[in-house]
Amino acid sequence: PQPVRLGDYRPPDWLVDTVHLDVRLHPTAARIVARLALRPNPEGREGSPIVLDGDELNLKSVTLDGAPLAGSAYVATSTGLTLLAPPQRALTLEIETVVDPSANTRLMGLYRSSGTYCTQCEAEGFRRITYFPDRPDVLAVYTTRIEAERDEAPVLLGNGNPVEAGAVEDTSRHYAVWHDPWPKPSYLFALVGGKLDRITEDFVTATGKTVELGIYVEPGKTARAGYAMDALKRAMRWDEEAFGCEYDLDVFNIVAVADFNMGAMENKGLNIFNDKYVLASPETATDADYANIEAIIAHEYFHNWTGNRITCRDWFQLCLKEGLTVFRDQEFSSDQRSRPVKRIADVRLLKGHQFPEDSGPLAHPVRPSSYREINNFYTATVYEKGAEVVRMLKTVLGDEGFRAGMDLYLDRHDGDAATVEDFLACFADANGIDLTQFALWYAQSGTPRLAVSGHWDEAARSYRLDVAQTLPPTPGQSEKLPMVIPLAIGLVGPDGRDLPLALDDGSNAERGVLLVTKPRQSFVFRDVPHRPVPSLNRGFSAPVKLSSDLSTADLLFLARHDSDPFNRFDATQTLALSHLLEATSAVRAGGEQPAPDALVEALAATLGDTSLDPAFVAQALSIPSEADVAREIGEDVDPDAIHAARTRLRHAVGEALAPALEAVYARHAPTGNYSPDAASAGRRALRNTCLDLLAAGGTAKGIARAQAHFGAADNMTDRFFALAVLAHAAPDAREDALAAFHRQFRADPLVVDKWLALQAQIAEPQTLERVRDLTGHADFDWSNPNRVRALIGTFAGLNPTQFHRADGAGHDLVAGAVMDIDGRNPQLAARLLAAFKSWRSLEPVRRASAEAALRRVAGKPSLSPDVTDIVSRSLD
Ligand code: HT7
Ligand code: ZN
């Protein structure tokens, strides 16, 4: 397909005011009658045809104002329906189509998941249900009548509020009518029909309106929906308090389905979820699962305002809803849990997923300027970097200025299909500032680099920070302009306290934030009586790669004293990373690099500081991942050498800190029943981190402790963590533990996913065969995206030594899976293929094998547009 370009945007020629859908559900021939009230758009081109999108539709009939349309009046193709010369006035089109939900393996449009009828319309799925101007700037009011066999689908749900329901006389069928009063784009349409159980609760909004909340799950699973309901109510309250956003319908429903291409979908009043992000019980879900459920339930709910009430003008503006809504869900989780720990987790995710994207062949701006396949732009850059950009806006404007901008945005653009420019204009107008340079964050791809050095002038009692910014070239962008980088800093005095920040021009660095706007800039602070240690980019205020002249002693000092928890954490990570870089080089040269005392000392100090939050200590004790090291090395990467260096470091730390780790492990033994709250989860995280490091120390005692932990666990967090320790560190104990786990949970597909994913991560050559064998296991299913992501996605994403095997077998396995899956689910296939995104940074042998695998995929006849897009950009 030809690329779609942002610069080519034109308003729609025709608008749709109302849509009446009559959907008769049937396993293989669902019949949809769509009545559309259309009118010419005064802002469109005069005299235009009516162009409707369509995809894999079986067209039965078309009428215009009640009269059948002559065959010569329209053209129907595989991609749409065009009325060639319609009267240029308001008119009604009625279109009847038939689709086959059971054959819909792409999981876009109307499909069946374990027998339940459901829909997924974002981004371009509505056109797989009926012909329609399937673009986000066509907003209409929808009424939906759904009809089905009562036995097959006793529950019938739609967008908006329920209007009526009943039996279809003299048949075994029944129907329900739903009306959504809020105009919406087609991508927010949804319906569900199936045999589902429900939990329900009332929520009273800030202005006293009662909303009936419902969560629908597969029969027998309601006991596992309680946490999602609790998270939903907390999210609804939080959005009222933090952003003044109140819910606007009489009901809010969530449906959990087992087959879903992504995490969840924010359809108006009817969110549809991957069941992985709804179902939780202490026996089946880990603390991380609970945290994800809370975040994703909140995220989809928050879209009700940022995405639904204010939607996107076009798909280039995707970050307008996604980046902003991720920011909002991050803030929610920070308020519900520990803010510093949440920030550390978010930055780890950003560095782990978005930074590699930004430095590889798939790099694109937060707001791309062209795309071939929009489904490939639901990326870490749009979501996570998009959230960072909103966070920077808040850092620049301060809490009040940010809230003023948000209030204006929610008010000024309610009911609109808006753009990034509209969004920024609200913050500029509300604060009286110019955000022209700031807007470059949306347009320039790549991760800025910031080099910072500090100079203390004892005589002048001043301190100067020299800052240089660069932005590397990225695909399609060789020249870059300097960005606005809000650099939050502190100057830490010898007593560990922050010095006042007084700039020599008389200004204060407002809220401790320096605005770096030029390629090179110096900031001079006066009244600095002692040489301070600068704490830079506090809270990771800007998503940049920062290098500085901080010494090991400075980092040790920050690790102990920085008042900014993120930088306290980061100081230890920086020490560990710099050791791992040297140790990796040493391994490649056939040598060894002992673990530095300074690092062990820093870890010991953190472990011994009982004033710290256990969840924070767990994060601070974690050794940077192999992917972190690979990213830092950047080129000529040898995953085996990284793995060896990291394994040795973990062994050394486990050995050196054993007594302290044992003591902390013992001190954090569970005291009562499992509870998923943040404090309890933090204690488990720390205890499990100790367990892991002790086992990494390689002693029989360490392994025995993990076995005992596995046997004694009364919840999935502890059980699965111990299983992971055994799987990675104890080959002799591994198989028995894996088998026991499988025996216990084989009936639960979401737990089977954990079992699959864990095996896919084992860093040894037999894993390839194991993964191959598992694809033939009775509990594996190529047609379920969760199963495929658990096994193949984890292998490609979290097992660098085996995915990038020097003999190329790992690359072959993933490329082969991509080609197999592409025929049935191109979106899933394209996402798996994106695991090759850093292939150019590999050492030559592995790079050649990755390239060969990509070329094999590229050469396969009849590839989907989704995979074609990823493979061609990867090879460009
Ligand atoms: N807005 C939703 C994105 C989404 C999606 C996109 C493409 C294909 C399938 C999809 N399912 C959900 C989810 C979100 O970000 O909130
Ligand atoms: Zn979203």
UniProtKB/TrEMBL annotation:
- UniProt cross-references to NCBIfam families, sorted A to Z: pepN_proteo
Q: Where is the Aminopeptidase N-like N-terminal domain?
A: 21-188
What catalytic reaction does the record list?
Release of an N-terminal amino acid, Xaa-|-Yaa- from a peptide, amide or arylamide. Xaa is preferably Ala, but may be most amino acids including Pro (slow action). When a terminal hydrophobic residue is followed by a prolyl residue, the two may be released as an intact Xaa-Pro dipeptide
Which Pfam family is one of this chain's hits? DUF3458_C
Which controlled-vocabulary keywords does the entry list? Aminopeptidase, Hydrolase, Metal-binding, Metalloprotease, Protease, Zinc
Q: Which family does it belong to?
A: Belongs to the peptidase M1 family.
Q: What is this protein called?
A: Aminopeptidase N
Gene3D superfamilies, sorted: 2.60.40.1840, 3.30.2010.30, Neutral Protease Domain 2, Peptidase M1, alanyl aminopeptidase, C-terminal domain, tricorn interacting facor f3 domain
